[in-house]
Amino acid sequence: MIEARHITKQFKRVLAVNDLSFDLEPGGSLALWGSNGAGKTTLIRCLLGVFPCKGTVRIDGIDVRRSGKHARARVGYVPQELAFHDDARLGSAIRFFAELRRVELIQAARSLEAVGLRGHESKRVRDLSGGMKQRLALAIAMIADPPVIVLDEPTSNLDSAGRGEVVDTLLKLREQGKTLIFASHRPDEVITLADRVLVMEQGRLVQQTTPEALWPSRSSIRSMRLYIEQGDEYRAAEILREGGYAINHGNSGLTVAIEQHRKAEPMNHLAERGIGVRDFELLRDVHDDDEPEIGIATEQLSEVLP
Q1: Which domains does the chain have, with CATH numbers?
Q2: Is the pTM higher than 0.70?
Q3: Where are the alpha helices (DSSP H) in 73-159?
Q4: Please, which pLDDT band fits residue 2 given cuts at 50, 70 and 90?
């Protein structure tokens, strides 16, 4: 369904996507996993033909560079930042996009039905919850019944209830045979929705794997930020990645997504390789909205972690 070969995109001196290739079969679901700045959004825009790039992309056999409009007609896209007119009513918004895509209004109604928004047509956009706005964006993406749905961090600005609504809707789309590709930094979404995971770091594909390989027990996942001794960050990232841990390497430490009962393992793994962890932080659980828990020095970890 999607064939990407040697995708490379450079902005002046910044190599945003570096020689990245993958295939996504019809009906499959692929998650793009990586820290902010890893190149996920740039890759998505290259796949859609929004950014010109080196390499080739084919969607359902159609070359995006040569027949971009034809290829994009096979795709429904949901961006990270939504832009709706607050005073518009939901029904008016969906009708506008139906006319834009030249589809019948009955198809617009079916699209609303598919995301659970049928009956809310009279509501103004400003009165919709975050989850409902995101589902409206999904309805618009699906209005022409495309076989491929592409989403950029679809739940990043939602609370736990809104995230649940969107994930449930995406699960239904998967059951209908839609092909999904989405960027996410939430392990629970990746575990629930994805067949495969592309782990990206600084524009490179560093690992092509599965959710089961990253989180074997599929139990409750915690995100933990490790602060490494200066100069050892990149080596620590490689050691953890080689050890099978799901990590994001950002400007503020290494973020490790790990099962609740294995929180000490990454630090022990680094200690065995002579890498010091000077501090750590337990971030918000992917299932709640509590404040982060702040860690303490490495020497005291054994006193607070199982």
Answers
A1: 2-201 (3.40.50.300), 218-304 (3.30.70)
A2: yes
A3: 90-100, 105-114, 130-141
A4: very high
